[in-house]
Amino acid sequence: MLKTICNFISQYLGVIVLIVAVLAFLFPWMFSAIPTTAINYLLGVVMFGMGLMLNLNDFKVVFSRPKDVFIGCLAQFTVMPLLAWGLVQVFNLDEALAVGVVLVGCCPGGTASNVMTFLAKGDLALSVGMTGVSTILAPLLTPLLTWLLVGKSVDVNVLSMILSILWVVILPIVAGIFVKRLWRGFTAKAVAYLPAFSSLAIAFIVGIIISASASRLMQGGALIVIVVILHNIFGLLLGYLIGWALHLSAPKRKAVSIEVGMQNSGLASSLATIHFAAYPMAIIPGALFSVWHNISGALVARLYASHSKL
């Protein structure tokens, strides 16, 4: 019964996140008692779970198929940041929203992309390998790309951001890997429940972000919603087209598409909260992306799964 519930939670993450987001927006008091600093701890829990699920076989794809992983990670850290910058220019967003959109674009892929790739019948090994490599590269690339794209107009403390990502992302992953090596029996039993547990943590992160920025979401208006949706959709589409142009197989194209289009938006919200407190609206793009990419990811996964040759 418990495994059935966990499978349900993992499969319908998009629906759950949407329900939580709507409740947090309409009734902010439901999550307002939880401080926004809890986002860091919940994100750490998700990353710790990722560490528990990682093993050396997951990184074999990096050495057995370096070209595929390189293509995916290069797309991850070029397509989404440049899309973010381009959308900021086209829609002439103010500094605060611009910072938030760029932060989302410069973050690595999230663990939800692995779930969606599995549901899409994509190349799961490639997806996990890309997530792992992009996450490892994030402490360096996320701050540097953010500085390059918005550093002229906004003060970006690169070193401080590097330390934050190491603390919130890398350290929990390393701790998870360490715990797995020490308590293999416990970890083997827990792995079946980890995706659902991580999904609930993601839903709570969304709830906290939305409730904390409910009033500001109204100020952001429909424009920022459109920008976030376009950012995600173009990311999914361009990720797929890059795979198609490079003659990757259908499962690989699906993996690259989902990995590029789905970001670790919880990390973007965390960085916005910690490092851009002077721009409170900067948290909004991450909050909206957290909701939308789980919905679009689930829809795209169903589309890909129903068309094996797509």
What are the defining features of this structure?
single chain, 310 residues, mainly alpha, 16 helices
Map the helices and strands.
Layout: H1 2-11, H2 13-26, H3 29-32, H4 38-53, H5 56-64, H6 66-90, H7 95-106, H8 112-119, H9 124-150, H10 158-182, H11 184-190, H12 194-212, H13 214-245, H14 250-261, H15 265-275, H16 283-306
Helix pairs in contact: 1-12, 2-12, 2-16, 4-10, 4-12, 5-6, 5-9, 6-7, 6-9, 6-13, 6-14, 7-9, 7-15, 7-16, 8-9, 8-14, 8-16, 9-10, 9-14, 10-11, 12-16, 13-14, 13-16, 15-16
Helix percent band: over 70%
Which structural class fits the helix and strand makeup? mainly alpha
Q: What percent strand?
A: under 5%
DSSP summary: helix tally = 16
Detail the poorly predicted runs: none
**Averaged pLDDT:** 84
Shape: globular
Which radius of gyration do the C-alpha atoms yield?
Answer: 18 Å
Largest sheet: none
Distance between the termini: 35 Å
Strand elements, count? 0
Q: What string gives the helices and strands in order?
A: HHHHHHHHHHHHHHHH
